[in-house]
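Researcher: I'm preparing a figure for a lab meeting and need a structural model of a single chain. I don't have an experimental structure, so a prediction will have to do for now. The sequence is pasted below. Please return the structure as tokens so I can convert it later.
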Amino acid sequence: MYENLALFIDGQWRSGDGRATETVINPATEAALGELPHATDADLDDALAAARRAFGDWRRRSPTDRGAILRQAAAILRARAEEVAANLVAEEGKSLTESRIEVMVAAEVLDWSAEEGRRQYGRLIPPRGPGFQQAVVPEPIGVCAQFAPWNFPAIFPARKISEALAAGCTCIIKPSEEVPASAIAIVRALEEAGLPPGVVNLVFGVPDTISRRLLASPVVRKLSFTGSIPVGKHLMRLAADNMVKTTMELGGHAPAIVFDDVDVDQVAAILTASKFRNAGQVCNSPTRFFVHEAVYDRFAAALAAAARGVRVGNGMDDGVVMGPLANARRREAIEGFVADALDRGAELLAGGARLENKGFFYAPTILGDVPDTARIMREEPFGPVAALTRFADTDEMLARANGLPFGLAGYAYTRGLANAQAVRDGLQVGLLGINTPQIALAETPFGGMKESGHGSEGGSEGVAGYMTTKFVSQLAL
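Model: Understood. Here is the structure written out token by token.
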């Protein structure tokens, strides 16, 4: 049964009362799932006041007590995993298998943050003279404004909320209006686990309206945003007026480098699974495939064959590997990228067309010999399209791979230590997978460089990002 859609402010669920609403759509069927209320200006002001008031008590609670609530919420989420996963499929479109994994990872993130909150130690600095004590003390930064995207409706809200709470902060989170149920389920779990009123406030509405009102308030001291580069830059400008600390996880356009010493079929299988996970709607999805010319033809054929074998359909159906795109906008954008690449001389090796009469389905697509002038080689497509290009010289290839302003993730496949070291030293990314697509775990930092953002979520860096540093120099009198 789909979630009862509502706001959560100061420990109370709010809906109706004449608020504007928007319809949440199932991307596989285009059927309406529910009506989502939008927060009014009064709702947002109430959320700010609640978060500010709750911060005074929450920051004084021990990390052990805060962690106990997070762990209990994780247990509740696991107990409801099937229900939450089914709603995730309905609103976002990914397969039930992927959705189950995502819900379990979200619970794991809550557990990780609970433990990491106990490890914000600070340090003592040896004094220069007698009678002095010098200490570095980490303190929670305050009220946080958080904005989560639609492509991972459970993981991103879980990560942002849990890291803030583990640090002793309170928060106002605005998930995507297209996928509200997963975030609501997480907040319900926290409420049932005993979270005090005001510590977490959940709002929905017109994104720019909400961000402007929250970031104009001096109450907000930290901004966490995951999304596109243009929106991230816009939010940073708003945050600058009040000198708000920011963590930005923005777009990527990940290169996947295939050297000539690999098992071609094995690597094609790995990259097929990685590329078409969540229909390619993943910020660290491999997109620009740099393939050594010695194995290019064999690899391109193997990748195209594997792509044609990906079963596409409603994520609730047995055996489905890839669901629809999340909305009509994404499908239209993918059609534009493919048409532009073909116009510029790329070869269509697989896919390249819409699927089904209902829903936002698009075939897994492989483009070969894509010129660097094509839009898809310069702009992140965020969909089920792989763009292949050849290389002969490693240095030249790395220069091309680094030639964009993005620097989130990258991948390389090779048996050669020299090749691996060249990529490790030369590729300008915050996340690098060598012979593996696994670059995101609860215990590891996730973040990019250049225009892909700054700061990290996950790992020890995630909770630390919600702390501020106080240096105390004390002399005994």
